[in-house]
Amino acid sequence: MCGILGFILDKCEDIQYSRELLRSMGSVQYHRGPDAWGEYQTEHVALGHNRLSIIDIEFGSQPMTSIDNRFTVVFNGEIYNAYSLRQRLEKLGNVFITSHSDTEVILNGFKEWGTNLFNFLEGMFAIAIWDNKNKKIFIARDRLGIKPLFYSKNEKGFLFASEPKTLIASNLVDYSKNEESIIDYFSFRGALHPNTLFKGISKLEPGTWASYSLSKTFKKNNKFWDIKKLNTSIQIQNKDFYKHLEESLEKVMNYHCISDVPVGIFLSGGVDSSLIAALLRDKSNIETFTLSTDYIYDESKYARKVSEHLNIKSNILSINGEVFSKYFDKWMTVNDDPLSDPSALALMILSEYANSKGMKVMLSGEGSDEIFGGYSSYKRYKNFRRLSKIPYIDIFIKLLKPNLGDQTLDYINRFPFVNFLGTSHTLTDNIRSNLFKNIFKETLSDNYLEKFIDDPIRRAMVFDQITRLPNDLLARTDKATMAYSIEGRVPFVDSNIVSLANIMNSNFCLRGNQSKYLLKKIASKYLPKDVIYREKIGFDLPIFNWLSSVFYSRINKFIASKNIEFINYEYIKLIYKELCSGNTYYQTILWQWVVLEEWNMRIRSYENKINIMNEYFLG
After folding, report:
1. Which of 118, 186, 257, 553 falls 20 to 30 Å from 73 in CA-CA distance?
2. What's the predicted TM-score (pTM) here?
3. 60: which residues sit within 8 A by CB, 6+ positions away?
4. Are 297 and 540 in contact (CB under 8 A)?
């Protein structure tokens, strides 16, 4: 796990300028790779690499250049099938210098297959490859968007990096607010790719590659994998899904443990992370890390029970509102393209704790809910679809409307054609009309997926895989772990597991009132049933308590300042008063607004203070 960056600019001919700019930008994302710094420069291009040494510690340094000096690569991530690809490339006559560097596999693979290489890579990756012969750079991002890759193309040239603030530090990109992404931020907890909340910065879409040449020709959206198109090459009888899924999970868990440094597990006590721990219980020196709060729904007791059941060393960190608030400023430095998920900040705190215990690789259960149907939103969607088909239902609805909540009304108002709005959908029609002074376009729904996927519940899950997974959950894991130089791995988001799950009928995920039906059936072989079949809570935090207490002065300062022109601050005051009186309904929207206000304040401070990030991380 590392940080990558680079650029093609007219000013690259000035080697001294290019070197100073590259190093200045690289220092901003130093936390991503504190073990080593590497750089490559010509009169056309500059590439930089912040290294976090995980595999082939001695010889895997980057940037790495091919023997013939034609190709140079910088790479962030892990390629789990590197060994088999290396054997294949060696049979084709390719020579390897390192013992087992996956970076060299990428280098020789691109030399052999060009952009077709990306089809063969299994793992998580953000890659940039400079072709010195054709004077062209290629960038690529893994299938599900596990690893981040941001870029900016303007009249000054082309820049890319692992984090937006790295690009901002160049002072060559437009970092003004992208108001068109605000509605997505509130609807999906983050801007949807390819957009960010910055006008001049984009996210490379998952499963795609792009190229930029000295002639300033930019080609993007070259797909090498499309999650919407189900893998019809996988032929499995329904009765064999259980066996095939269990074998696939065991295989994936094992190669996610490949590392030359210690590996740990973020254990919440839920079925996903508990199953990871169960399948890896025989690995030596595996430890679990859990966060505890003083909240009534604290799940650390289940995590402790799982660790004891599997005889794995458990580490539990307890936090409260004061601790949470203390880390908020650090989180907002990390959270440069803002995500509004409060659990991300908590994960960052836990990452610091894991780092203090010597961990450099941590496994997480992220993505399982979107793949195996773990959210109550899928049940709700299923019920609303059934309800919408009842004759004369609209008459009954008119009578019930005064007693229905906002989220229910959002579905009801779309009868008879009910569309899935996303699991993270909290920006209801009523809240949107009150919160914003401007008129923003309607939230994206799953209706565009109907031509690809017949099963409506599976379609809802794929919708979350496209929207929520890369733009919120995977992004938060990367930000939170890399803030403390930890490689976060997400085995459930392996493309082989996702492809297998997405060809399953949704009945294997949601059967009756039982979510994650098949996954829980597998987990029941290894874990106590009261851990597996209890009601899903999720990583819940007492945000409503903390917003009304430790964040009180910050919130009142934001309300008084009225810095965001399209926000209705009278409505903010109203719902904050409701929260302080015990109404938790608006807690998500208020947290999203607080994060946006802090981000907006920092954007304003960027002017003439580009090095603020540099000073923060390097002291």
Report:
1. 257
2. 0.93
3. 51, 53, 98, 101, 102, 103, 104
4. yes
